[in-house]
Amino acid sequence: MLRTVSLIQFGFGGVGRAVASRILTAAAPFKRRYGLRLRYVALCDSRGAVVEPQGLSEDHLLHLLDHKREGRSLISARGGRARENLTEIIEQAGVDETVVIDVTATDETTAALKLALARGHAAVLANKKPLTGSMDDFRELTASGRLRYESTVGAGVPVIATLSETLLAANDAIQRIAGCFSGTLGFLTTGLQAGGAFSALVREAYEKGYTEPDPRDDLGGMDVARKALILARTLGWSLDLEQIEVESLYPAELASGSVDAFLDALSGLDDAYRERVVAALSRQHTLRYVAALEDGAARVGLQSVPLESPLGQLQGTDNLIAFHTAIYDPNPLVLQGRGAGVHGTAAGVLADVVRLSL
């Protein structure tokens, strides 16, 4: 018997389109493997929406994908209109067996997610903002057990599932968690290890599209801090973002001004970073941008780690997390995998949708 699950998706940028594309290509395998049919009933971008309670056809979804790849809003797509409040989208399109997918980067979705869960729907997040606001929001969103958020930490690497469904479910005592959760900063630190200049590596990452449009969004460390906070809260710690110690990789005086001016000014930091690299290598260590959780506290920043450690051997844009626990001692449980690109994140989102649908 074929089971139909309806999808409402907030966000139709790079990750959102990758999710939709994967759902299209998975249609036949999912039908054969799980007896499962996934159908979109609503898609929203920052300005527009397409709502079809009977489900978007494959042809219509392909049209919307092409339309967005051309840089246009859903407002002007076939069946598109100006977007209403997201809670109204839930009211219009939410039916039995609905999963809401949030692949935006805004806390605007929080109220709509709460409404969806209150109505018995399920939700999947790649968006970190709803889970890193108030502790009350986190508790309300996760209380039902119908929300999954694997792709908020580690892209498609199963970090959350391992923590919550393997370690915590086995009542293993978590002693320490340490991880590299930014493909951009992984590229930067392994480049520093190889002798590259800090300013040149940042510019290369920017030109290759590894960074956000403003590289300060990566170099400031707040994205990694949000991932650390999600891990801490999954552990059951009552922690807020302001309580996490965050090391920025640029000084406060460079926080304002144009991107071009910022990139030009980074050459003034090259000598300082070169000295840190040399000092680390003299101890058979290297630098990595690490999120560390231990004894109820979290810190993110540049750390000197042994070259032979899992973090020290990490290369390029991969993500890695090491769980040090009572069972996994002295050698930690280590997960490593793709940390850059939209398809790793999209794969994690789709896996969560399927888990909630079966």
Order of helices and strands: EHHEEHEHEHEHEHEHHHHEHHEEHEEH
* Record field, number of beta strands: 13
Task: Predict the CATH topology of the largest domain.
Answer: Rossmann fold
CATH class of the largest domain: Alpha Beta
Distance between the termini: 13 Å
Order of strands across the widest beta sheet?
A: 4-3-2-1-5-6-7
Give the count of helical stretches.
15
Q: Please name the fourth-level CATH homologous superfamily of the largest domain.
A: NAD(P)-binding Rossmann-like Domain
Tell me the β content: 15-25%
What descriptive keywords fit this protein?
about 350 residues; alpha/beta; Rossmann fold; Dihydrodipicolinate Reductase, domain 2; seven-stranded mixed beta sheet; six-stranded mixed beta sheet; 15 helices; 13 strands; about 20% strand
How is the topology of this model organized?
Blueprint: E1 3-10, H1 14-25, H2 27-34, E2 36-44, E3 48-51, H3 58-69, E4 80-82, H4 86-93, E5 98-102, H5 110-118, E6 122-125, H6 135-142, E7 147-148, H7 159-167, E8 174-180, H8 183-193, H9 198-207, H10 216-219, H11 222-234, E9 245-246, H12 259-265, H13 270-281, E10 285-294, E11 297-306, H14 310-313, E12 319-325, E13 333-337, H15 342-357
Parallel strand pairs: 1-2, 1-5, 5-6, 6-7, 9-11
Antiparallel strand pairs: 2-3, 3-4, 8-10, 8-12, 10-11, 12-13
Helix pairs in contact: 1-3, 1-15, 4-5, 8-9
